[in-house]
Predict the 3D structure of the following.
Amino acid sequence: MTKPLVAIRSVAKNFGEFQALKSVTLDVWPGEVMCLIGASGSGKTTLLRCINQLAAIDSGGIWLDGELLGVREQGGRLHRLTEREIGRQRLKTGMVFQRFNLFPHKTALENITEGPLQVQGRKSDEVRAEAIELLRRVGLSAKADSYPAQLSGGQQQRVAIARALAMKPMLMLFDEPTSALDPELVGEVLAVMKELARSGMTMMVVTHELGFAREVADRVVYMDQGAIIEQGRASDVLGAPREERTRAFLSAVI
Amino acid sequence: MKSAPALAEGFPDLSGMRIAREPHWFRWLSAALIVLVLALIVRAFAGGQIEWSYVSRFLTAKVILEGIVNTMVMAVLAMALGIFLGVVVAIMRLSPNPVLKTVAAGYTWLFRGTPLILQLLLWFNLALVFPTIGIPGLWSARAVDVMTPFLAALLGLGINQGAYTSEVMRAGMLSVDIGQYEAAQAIGMGRLRALRRIVLPQAMRVVIPPLGNEFIGMVKATSLASVIQYPELLHNAENIYYANSRVIELLIVAGLWYLLVVSILTPLQMLLERRFARGTLQFAR
């Protein structure tokens, strides 16, 4: 029997008084493309950030590839991992941010090679060749030496995807990757993501692009107020939602 | 489709007309006044009790040239120490560790809170507190031998500068978007590597103008080391006028050298700014 790539069990996360996540439990299977939808503040972005450990969870546990994230169980207690160990765990995930967060002082190519060279300490020729191949894959071969400020939003986000892929992650996390883009640039980013999904990458995508979810997602998860309200096949959740709250959200969005 | 309505009357065609030059009477008048005042000042100095021959003779005197070399050596070394301490303290200040944070804040408080000249005198007179210094059992020396004017000036100026520079560096690091830290973490970087590779290079662009300011301040602050016998420019100029009583002439000599050095530093700063502006639209290739 295969094991889930990500196992999330009873995860809670508070920001002060605000409960961002209330006991979320979820499995993500290898090769699965999962879209997380819901209103802002529903906890979907927080869930991604917890998986990537940009935010530390308050209770529950997340296992990635069978390994407990962020803490180690010892003598009936949990001990926080060191920054170095957390860094090692992060290498299994690639993160794409809403606002791209490319390094502005580095060219597109340097953005992609930074992690493999500096963090993984790999050989420069090999990393460079892979980076050029990744740029080709996202359709930006001609932009290798451009700085982020010289690229459009859509091009920047495609470089950001290539940067995340350069670390050879097992899981790609997308946090509203097209929300900061002008409408005419959304398509080029979604096309790259579709190609990635077809290649068999496991993906968790927080998105408002319901068309993309319908077309690409194996599973759609609807969240509200820090909890999973409904999940299932895209055609079921988006086409025939069972829950009243899902119906209300979908009718507000479309 | 409806056609556009006919254009309204009464708005003449202005194309081809030039905009006339303004006479700017007031600018001419004020410039003339300033030239007049400058001329009067020059005349006053030319006729005053200044022996200009002394100025030109001592401008390139060996002692003065040695003084300017010592000034620059001290300014560069003390600034290097100040930047090193400033970066370390700023990183400590922004660390999640409360011990490091408190130590950093205490350092800034202590060395920014007391006059620089007092700190220089304290370092120079350290022998009064600790007649001998060293590592017990391994090495020891008399403090008066170790704490030369050079070392006292370097420690006094550098450590004081570090307190100011740390705040400049901290401001620079805070100016970098939080998303940059997150993106660096997301590709597996630890805090220090993210600071070194991603945050500091971007912060440099912001901190170079204030650091240029601080360095120009440092060049002139070295003159305070004259009180602890460090043979920098002002100290040497003073030694000459103690002997020949040409006080004003030698102060003018020193002043001209400080002005020259600062004038050279300004374009150097612009080169440095250009270097760190990589990737910004302004200087993008």
About this structure: Chain A touches chain B at residues 52, 54, 83-84, 87-88, 90-91, 93-95, 97, 99, 101-107, 114-115, 118-120, 147-150, 160, 163-164, 167 (CB under 8 Å). The mean pLDDT of chain A is 95. The two ends of chain A are 39 Å apart (CA to CA). DSSP finds nine helices and twelve strands in chain A.
